[in-house]
Amino acid sequence: MERYNQLLEEMKQQEARRHAELMEAIREYVTVATAPFLSQKAFDTLLTNIEQIACGRTDSCLPLRSNPDRPLRSPELRHLAWNIGERLHLSLEERARFIKLSFPHELNNATVEYLQRNLRVAVPSHIPIDIPDEGDFRFHLELIGIHRKKMPPC
Q1: Distance set, CA 124 to CA 37, 48, 73 (Å)
Q2: CB under 8 Å to 76, separation ≥6 — which residues?
Q3: pLDDT tens digit sequence for 25-36
Q4: How many whole angstroms separate alpha carbon 119 and alpha carbon 117?
Q5: Smallest Cα–Cα separation from 93: which of 77, 82, 106?
Q6: Residue span of the structural domain in which 118 resides
Q7: In the predicted model, is pLDDT for residue 147 greater than 60?
Q8: Which of 39, 128, 139, 143 is the most exposed place for a label (fewest CB within 10 A)?
Q9: Nearest of 59, 150, 144, 64 to residue 107 by alpha carbon
Q10: How many angstroms separate the CA atoms of 75 and 153, rounded?
């Protein structure tokens, strides 16, 4: 029985470490992907929203807005939601609700149903779809830099 409890505790610690590493990878990705488009306050709100959805509280997201002089468009937001949601194992509906609640101004004409159906549609975007490698949650940050070089400035 003692060995069982020890193994259970080790598994809990390993899961906690993995979750911490995942959240750090998401924070790094969000920083690289959204820095040109968000103020510090909006960025902080986005990170808080991501922490909320990671804990299963999708409806707790606070609204934020991208920079008026360099706004995030629907394709970037859909790809951002898909990329993050893929690492957190969120359903498509949860991803769509998260991004719609987080960016209500930018997505004012989009329904959750539309977003859900179009999260992974491959269209030109400053934030490309990032499919994780098998069994890995890390992002391919080099895709963002390469992709931005190909895109004309806003």
Answers
A1: 16, 28, 11
A2: 37, 125, 126, 127
A3: 999 999 999 999
A4: 6
A5: 82
A6: 2-150
A7: no
A8: 39
A9: 64
A10: 16
